[in-house]
């Protein structure tokens, strides 16, 4: 498995993709000139275009170049196009687990999951924009409650005032 796969996987998570979206991402979804990647969404998320940081543009460009040597585009960036959805999901999870273990973030005492990256992205967006709606939009969520939970924002007071 080439090193560009792990970097591409992490870049997609950092862009705001969820696991199912990472597995479905293809070279056709990339707009490296604009520094963006598109997702069609999933059963729980909406279609959207997510900005890439400089590192994301770089590593997804490397990945696209690597895969482009294999044959005609478009091609999936981190999973096989011929794999069943459950196999793709497992592959994404396994790849993320490799990243977490190799980086030392995930240990026997502490487990790191893709959702932890999503929480990081949610908090980062909230800190940068101050807008919960931007967190929801960027992550493809239709629920502000879910966005608030991911961003660790307590926005309900917990009851009616009497």
Automatic annotation (TrEMBL):
The keyword Signal is assigned to this record: yes
Alphabetically ordered keywords of this record: Signal
Signal peptide span: 1-24
Organism of derivation: Streptomyces kaempferi
InterPro entries reported for this sequence: Integrase-like_cat_sf (IPR013762)
Protein name: Helix-turn-helix domain-containing protein
């Amino acid at each position: 498995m080439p090193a560009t796969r792990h970097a591409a996987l992490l870049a997609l998570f950092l862009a705001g993709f969820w696991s199912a979206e990472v597995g479905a991402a293809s070279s056709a979804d990339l707009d490296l000139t604009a520094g963006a990647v598109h997702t069609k969404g999933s059963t729980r998320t909406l279609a959207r275009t997510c900005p890439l940081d400089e590192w994301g543009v770089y590593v997804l460009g490397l990945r696209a170049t690597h895969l482009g040597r294999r044959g005609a585009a478009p091609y999936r960036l981190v999973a096989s196009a011929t794999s069943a959805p459950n196999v793709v999901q497992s592959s994404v999870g396994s790849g993320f687990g490799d990243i977490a273990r190799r980086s030392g973030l995930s240990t026997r005492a502490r487990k790191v999951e893709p959702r932890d990256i999503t929480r990081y992205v949610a908090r980062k967006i909230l800190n940068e924009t101050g807008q919960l709606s931007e967190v929801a939009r960027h992550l493809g969520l239709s629920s502000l409650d879910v966005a608030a939970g991911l961003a660790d924002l307590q926005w309900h007071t917990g009851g009616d005032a009497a």
